[in-house]
Amino acid sequence: MRTTLTLDEDVAALLEKTRRAKGLSFKQIVNEALRAGLRQLATPGQRRHRFKTPHADLGRCLIGGLDDVSEALATGEGEAFQ
Asked: Total domain count for the chain?
């Protein structure tokens, strides 16, 4: 089949670089790239392993609250908060 493609500059540059490295014609490298890409698109992606963060009980909060940063810093540094 004969057709006209408009390629983005980065795609054309990558095709040309790969074509030179493999010593293939432009037609061959375009067909090879399309086959590989279409195969990848046609197969369902692998399911990722769900990451879980382990939990740790740190006990109760030792200061009045963490909403007031200046109070938390003063308490942490051993100062009396006003």
From this structure: 1
Query: Do the domain assignments include residue 65?
Result: no
Residue 81 predicted with pLDDT over 70:
no
Run of H or E including 74:
helix 69-76
CB distance 33 to 21 below 8 Å: no
> Per residue in 7-17, pLDDT tens?
999 999 999 99
- Looking at 21-25, 42-46, 65-69, 78-82, which range is the least confident one? 78-82
**Residue 35 covered by a domain:** yes
Range of the domain at 17: 9-42
3-state SS class at 26: helix
